[in-house]
Write a structure and sequence with these properties.
Two copies of one chain form a homodimer.
Chain A: H1 5-13, E1 21-22, H2 31-35, E2 43-44, H3 47-50, E3 57-60, H4 71-82, E4 86-89, H5 99-108, E5 112-114, E6 135-141, H6 148-161, E7 166-169, H7 173-179, H8 193-207, E8 210-213, H9 225-235, E9 239-244, H10 261-273, E10 280-285, H11 292-306, E11 310-311, H12 313-316, H13 319-330
Helix pairs in contact in A: 1-7, 4-5, 8-9
Chain lengths: 331, 331
């Protein structure tokens, strides 16, 4: 499941139906069985087995290190274009710029959406203030791939249920696929990261009272910390929600220990204050790999360690986090 | 002078002679008179007035916000190519990719070096340890354009005078122009900043005992802090030198106050420790805009505030900083 972030996100939160999942290793089983969401959606071994389920789009949700296109996928994409499927691509490698795909796609009249393609207008952050009365919330994390997008989407959904004026701002490929727009900050030239996310956040604050922004990476991550800080300072949030997975002990993919939750709180509050002070007001845990009793104990421990409200927003709802944001936002 | 960073750097530290400076506003005067370095090098109003001084290269050292090519410069560059001059370009805009210049340059057999062109191989940081016994020093700053490159180059020069095994790693356009190679980290896609600078630093540590890396931006900068943290974590320095300009009160170009020197020390040490602990061991001041007595007072105040050795490495030499690094490096 840890490696199926995009599939889980798109099945759980996407606007379009998923008719089949392509994965040779688990073919024959169902999405609900293998990744815990999607119920009876079949997992198939290859494109041809997916066709009877009448897909209109091939969504490339793999996330290999570095974001390149694995050679084996060239063939699958070519065949999908040949079958008239649109392509939604989350890799760094832009398929619309790749003649092997761009030429037949144009000829067949199908669309290629490279969701990680950065905006054409590169902006330098202005440090302009947000509309008074708006509240920008950024989800931050102890590591990558730990639940920041999910926490922000659950907050947005809960705010919607409560009838609040609110929106979500996507900053990564899965969030953009789900929401239909956003800024792939990890794909932006480093000088422009803060400026490129600042613009849509300012616009969202003009229109909505609550703006939930998907965080990226972690301040402690040896490869991606720069993305995290650029995003934190470009978003200039008023309030932070800290995301963590209780069973995660080391930085994903590295032999480095994760800091404690209280060290995370201190680091994010210090780094935010370099630009605009923002307290961490709650903890969102990702307990998908724990039994329910264990998950409840993990939530209680996180609340005790940080002195903050904690929950797993998927499992137990985002209500307590939104309550805490509301109280903090009134101050 | 504040806006002539590249001219000052290339004239002071570059390997090639500068025969004339192109600047319409100050034409007729000398470089020594206007920017404080370069003695009798003439400042001329246009390319044609420079030609009698027999240049073989046009170096574009302007640094407009955003790094685009000002339209007025298209004409100058075209004429320079027509006169057979090679082009060295520090802008984000890549001239070798611009048909208006690439085609005539190829025809005329002249070279275009876009120093900010990022490396083609994009790397994710590995967090590999440096060679034991090597010492990596990163210059960090309270703001942009405050003396980080200069401090690192002065440390490298002083290490050379002492016969130490040492090298310099350039990370910005001026440093790359001076040193002939380097990584333009502000031009690298944000996901790859740490990994792209990690590789040359690891290689330098394998060959040299002291590696002086040019810092970029500042943790407090609303637009560029992400570059700063990505660089800090990719370089994973053992020791830091803090750079500051005593007369700078606000973030350059923004209505935001600069933090105190002791707040800078605390922030950089905290942020370094998220990846690899590194103390700030000295302060390098840029006192070009102070009289000598004032400069000495500023140095004394910085030493008192931080409890660290301080100097202006250009004005008073980098000796005390290298002494402090040597003592800290032995621990």
């Amino acid at each position: 499941v840890e490696d199926a972030k995009t599939a889980v996100g798109v099945i759980r939160y996407g606007r379009d139906d998923v008719v089949a999942v392509l994965d040779a290793r688990t073919a024959g089983r169902t999405a609900g069985d293998v990744i815990g969401v999607g119920g009876e959606i079949p997992i198939v071994a290859n494109l041809e087995e997916a066709l009877p389920h009448r897909p209109d789009t091939l969504l490339i949700g793999i996330a290999p290190r570095g974001g390149g296109l694995p050679p084996a996928w060239r063939d699958v994409i070519g065949r999908a274009i040949g079958r008239g499927l649109d392509i939604v691509n989350g890799l760094h490698h832009e398929l619309a710029e790749d003649p092997e795909f761009a030429v037949p796609a144009r000829r067949a009249g199908i669309a290629i959406w490279d969701v990680r393609r950065p905006p054409d207008d590169l902006r330098i952050a202005t440090a302009a203030p947000h509309r008074a009365g708006s509240r920008t919330v950024l989800t931050v994390g102890s590591d990558c791939n730990i639940g920041k997008m999910t926490a922000a989407l659950e907050l947005q959904a809960e705010a919607g249920r409560r009838g609040l004026s609110s929106t979500f701002v996507a900053t990564g490929q899965t969030g953009i696929m789900i929401w239909g727009e956003g800024v792939p900050v990890d794909r932006v030239i480093s000088d422009f990261v803060a400026g490129t996310i600042e613009a849509p956040v300012l616009a969202a604050c003009d229109r909505q009272d609550w703006v939930f922004v998907e965080g990226q990476g972690a301040l402690f991550h040896p490869a991606y910390s720069g993305v995290t800080l650029g995003l934190l300072h470009g978003v200039a949030p008023d309030l932070l929600v800290l995301c963590h997975q209780p069973t995660r002990r080391r930085v994903r993919g590295y032999d480095l220990p994760l800091p404690s939750l209280s060290a995370c709180v201190a680091a994010y509050e210090a780094a935010a204050a370099w630009r605009h002070p923002a307290p961490v007001v709650g903890v969102a845990l990702n307990t998908y790999d724990l039994a329910e009793a264990e998950a409840r104990r993990a939530v209680a421990r996180a609340a005790e360690e940080t002195g903050l409200p904690a929950t797993d927003p998927v499992r137990f709802g985002a209500g307590v986090l939104l309550d805490a944001l509301g109280r903090a936002g009134e101050r």
